Amino acid sequence: MTDMGNPNHRIFDPAKEEGAQPPQPRGSSLRDRIRRSEQDSGAASSLSRSGYIHNPQPVEEKQVAQERSQMMSPDQHQAMPEEVPVANEQPAPPPPIPAPPSQLRAEAEARKAPEPEAEEEPEVDADEQSAQNMVQPIGVVLEIAGSGSMIAIDLQRLSECAEDADPSIAMAGQVGSQIKIRVGNSWLLASVRNQRQDRKAGSILANIDFLGEGVEEKLTGRLHGFRRGVTRYPVPGALVYPASTADLKQVYASDGRSAVTIGKVYPTKDIRAGIYIDAMLGKHFALLGSTGTGKSTSAALILHRICEAAPEGHIVMIDPHGEYSAAFRNTGVILDVSNLQMPYWIMNFEEHCEVLLTSQGNDRQVDEDILAKCLLKARSKSRLAESMGKITVDSPIPYLLSDLSNAIQDAMGKLDKATTSAPYMRIKNKLEELKSDPRYQFMFSGMLVGDTMSEFICKIFRMPSNGKPISIIDVSGVPSDITSTVVAVLSRLVFDFAIWGREERTSPILLVCEEAHRYVPSEKNSDGNSVGTILSRIAKEGRKYGISLGLITQRPSDLAEGVLSQCGTIISMRLNNDRDQDFVRAAMPEGARGFLDAIPALRNRECIICGEGVAIPIRVSFDNLEESKRPASEDPSFVELWNQTGGEEEIVERTVQRWRSQG
Ligand SMILES: Nc1ncnc2c1ncn2[C@@H]1O[C@H](COP(=O)(O)OP(=O)(O)O)[C@@H](O)[C@H]1O
Ligand SMILES: [Mg+2]
C-alpha cells in the first residue's frame, strides 16, 4: 500500500490551488504582527478557508472558490503579490514579548464578535472560527537552541483554539501537541514538550522540539513534501501557528514506502497512523507498556497487519503464556509441547550444559570437561558424522541418548581408583531423569533421534509459509527449568540459519519475544543463561544477516543494557513506573521528548511510536481488534466466573489426573 489509508491524500497541483493567502508580511512587534496577521486572515478566510494549508475536502474547496470569486476583483489578484515579502528578509528584532495580555484579549474579543449573518448560520460560523484559528498565530518564538527552543503562547489564543472543532487545533499549544513555525518558504513542525506560566507577562512559556519541515508552496503558501529534520531554524520573533488536521494529514501521509495502518493519529478523528514495515523490521522494534495497557493485543494487531501485507513472511513468536494461539489460529501454526518435537541433539554444547549439569563452582568445570568428551564421542558415532569427517561438540548432528550414556559409563570404567566417579554419576543420573520424565518428552524422546533438522527448521521458520507466515511457539507447557534453554535454542537456530544461509537467497526472519525481560535480563537479574547472550547478539548483529527482533515487555528497565537502544522503533504504551519511563526516554530520540512526557498519561490502547518505523513521532490510538484475532486475555472476570456453578468435582478430578501423569 502506498498511501497510509488516507483517503484525502492527493498530489499537489498548483493549477488547482490558486488564490490562497500569500506569506505573512513581517511587522516590528508581536502586536503589530498579530494584528497584521488578523487582517490578512480576514482577507485570507474570504480567499481560502484553508489558509496556508492544504485542505483536502473537495466540497469545502468548491465553496471557497465560489466565495473567492464573489469577494475578489481581478485587481485585487494583481495587488496581492506586492505584499509578499522577500523570503530572506532580515528577521524582525525580538518583540517585547509576550505581548501585554490585556491588549491581546481586547483584540481577541473584537475578533470574536459574531457577525449578524453568521449568527443565522452557526455551522459556517464554526468553520469561520476554525479557519481563523488556523491562520492566526498563537505565539512567538523566544529562543532557539539545537533541536529545541522556547516559545511564548498567548493564553487568550490558547483558549480560543481550545474550542475549535478541529481537534488538532483544539489541542494546539498543549503539551504533546504540534505547532508550526514559518521559516522563509517552509513550515517547521514542532511538538510542545512542556508549559509554564510567565507570571509577569501573563502568558505561557513552552519548550518545543522540532520534528521536521515541509516546503511552502510558493503560490499558495501551503505545506507539502514534509520530511524529518530541520535545515533552517527560525529566528526569535517568528510566529507560531497551530497545526491543523489538514497539516497533519500532509505530515502523516505515506511517502510511498509500504506501510501497515494500525490506528488513528491522536488527537485527530480520521488520520490513519501507519508504520513503515521495512524500516521498522530492518532495525528491530520494542513494544513496551505496563500490564493491562493492551500490549499483547497490540502486538497481535501489528503482526496480523504484517501478515496481511506479507502472507509469505517468516515470523517466529515466542509465547511464554500461551496467549497467542487464540489470535493466530487461522494465520499461523501453533507449536506447543504436544507438537513442537524439538530434537535434543540440536542443542549446542553450552545448551547441553544448561540442561544436563547441576553442579556449581569448581565441580561445574569438571562436569563440563566430561560432558564435552562424551558428547563428542556420542555425536561421532552416528553414521552422518562418519560421512562428514570433522565434527565438533556444537555440530547439530543426531546422536543416541544411549550412546551418550554409554560414553559416560565407559569413561567411568576407565577411571583409576583415586578419581571420584561422582561427576559421571551426576550427569548420567540427570540424563536418565530427562529420558524418563514425561514433561521432557517434547525434546528428549527416543522418537526424536532421526535426522529431522531440515524439517524442523522448515516447520518453525515457515519455509514455505503456505499462507501461514507466523509460527507461535507456546512454551507455557515447557518445564520451567529448561524454558530459557528452549528459547535459547530457538533463537540460536534463527541466528545460525541466517549465518549459514548467507550465500543463499533466504528471506529475512522476524523473531518476536514476549516477556523479553525474562530472556534478555539486565546484569543485575541475569543468571548467565545462554538465551540472554544469543538475544543480545541478535539485537547487535542480527540485522546484518536479515534477522529482525521484536521485543515485548512490561519492564523495560529490566532489559539488558543496550538492547533497547538497538531497537530502531519504539512503541510505548503507558508505563506506570518511573524507572521504566526513564529507560524509554533514554532510548528514544531527542525530538520525541514532548511525546514521551505523555507516556504516563496514555490511555489503554494508546501508544507513542518513534524511530525508524514512522516519519515523525506519533501518538496513536490502536484500532479495535476483532475478538477472534485477539490473544487470550489473562484477566479473568471474577464476578462472571463466581456466578457460575456445575461440574466442579469432575474438573478437579481431571486436573488431578493430568497433574499426576504430568502431561
Ligand atoms: N486494540 C484492541 N482491540 C480490542 N481490545 C483490546 C485492544 N487492546 C486491548 N484490548 C483489551 O484490553 C485488555 C488488555 O489487553 P492485553 O493485550 O492483554 O494487555 P497487556 O498485554 O498489556 O497486559 C484485553 O482484554 C483486550 O481484549
Ligand atoms: Mg500481555
Structure, explained:
- The protein folds into three domains: 14-256, no CATH class; 274-341 and 452-648, P-loop containing nucleotide triphosphate hydrolases (Rossmann fold), CATH 3.40.50; 349-438, no CATH class.
- It is built from 24 helices and 19 strands.
- Strands 10-9-19-18-17-11-16-15-12-14-13 form an eleven-stranded mixed beta sheet.
- Helix 1 packs across helix 6 (122-135), helix 4 packs parallel to helix 7 (155-162) and helix 13 (361-380) crosses helix 15 (401-413).
- The longest helix is centred in the C-terminal third of the chain and has 21 residues, at 480-500.
- Residues 1-31 and 41-124 have low confidence and may be disordered.
- The structure holds adenosine-5'-diphosphate and magnesium ion.
- This is DUF87 domain-containing protein.
- Residues 91-101 have a biased composition (Pro residues).
Instruction: Specify the overall morphology.
Output: elongated
Number of extended strands: 19
Gyration radius, to the nearest Å? 32 Å
Estimated helix fraction = 25-40%
Q: Widest sheet: strand order? A: 10-9-19-18-17-11-16-15-12-14-13
CATH class of the largest domain: Alpha Beta
Question: Can you summarize the main beta sheet?
Answer: 11 strands, mixed
Structural class: alpha/beta
CATH third-tier fold name of the largest domain: Rossmann fold
Which CATH-level-2 architecture of the largest domain? 3-Layer(aba) Sandwich
Tally of structural domains: 3
Q: How much of the residues is beta strand, in percent?
A: 15-25%
